[in-house]
Hints:
Shape: elongated
Radius of gyration: 20 Å
Number of strands: 0
Amino acid sequence: MLPALFCFIPGGYLSAATAELAAGLITTGAIRLVHSLFLLVQMYVGVLLGVLFAGASPHAFFDVAAHSDHAGAQRNRKAAP
């Protein structure tokens, strides 16, 4: 699910904001930077709400390795006498 959202990451806005801030264009650079950060927060909240409305655990999407390690530890505990 997350790789599909990669094309929406505002990389162009972030690099343009950095270039404008480095060039001394404080107003336009700051506006682009705030806009790009706002877009990132919107995407994060949207994914989180989608996961919660779907009834899934957020760990199922974001922490796959830790989730599988946790499941493996539970299996090992059940198998132990």
